[in-house]
Amino acid sequence: MAGVTLSDRIAPASKRRSARAPAVSRLSFSTQSVSGLHVALPSVENKQWMLEQSVFAMRLLVSLCTIAFIALVYLSEVNQGAQLTNTINVLSDEQQRLLRVNGEMKAVIDRDSSLTRIQQEASTLGMVPVDPRSITYIDVRASSDTVARLVAR
Questions:
Q1: What domain range is 118 assigned to?
Q2: CA–CA separation, 2 vs 4, rounded Å?
Q3: How far apart (Å, rounded) are the C-alpha atoms in residues 127 and 9?
Q4: Of 43, 59, 63, 69, whose CB has the highest number of CB atoms within 10 Å?
């Protein structure tokens, strides 16, 4: 695209056409006879113009494909970020729920393991405190005579 300046590219289409290549309606063709057939072939200037147009179209197509690919990658990353944010929120909610349940369980354990609660439950079941002096300890390593004597008491 030799001889085309930046102002020619920015200029309106009507000005550009006159500065660059002939309009489509002014394309010139040369007629050649091939095997008795008359074939219209474009002139050298028209071939150059068509080549420039195809190069421009290919550059435009490559640019559009690049932009589309970048947009696709960007949307993929945004979507993945949104999914991770959602997963973090769900896990945070689950953690808060489990902490609350854990606190409730600790309160139940503290309440049920208190001495007064155990004594109330034992008396409900008919258990009574034992006099520590009435407890007899048996030495399991002792001989059978000692065990028999203790049982006879």
A1: 94-127
A2: 6
A3: 103
A4: 43
* Domains held by the chain: number: 2
Over residues 62-117, the pLDDT tens digits come to 999 999 999 999 999 999 999 999 999 999 999 999 999 999 999 999 988 888 88
Q: What's the pLDDT band for 132 if we cut at 50, 70, 90?
A: confident
Do 63 and 4 lie in one domain? The reply is yes
Q: Is residue 33 within 8 Å of 39, Cβ to Cβ?
A: yes
Owner of token pair 């000005």: 15
**Can you read off the two tokens belonging to residue 127?**
């258990």
User: How far apart (Å, rounded) are the C-alpha atoms in residues 63 and 72?
Assistant: 14
Q: How far is CA 63 from CA 8, 56, 121, in A?
A: 21, 10, 82
142 inside domain: no
Instruction: Say yes or no: 59 and 100 in one domain.
Output: no
Compute the mean pLDDT over every residue in the chain, rounded to the nearest whole number.
79
Q: How far apart are the C-alpha atoms of 106 and 3, rounded to whole Å?
A: 85
Print burial letters for 46-69: b (CB count within 10 Å at least 16), e (below 16).
Answer: beebeeeeeeeeeeeeeeeeeeee
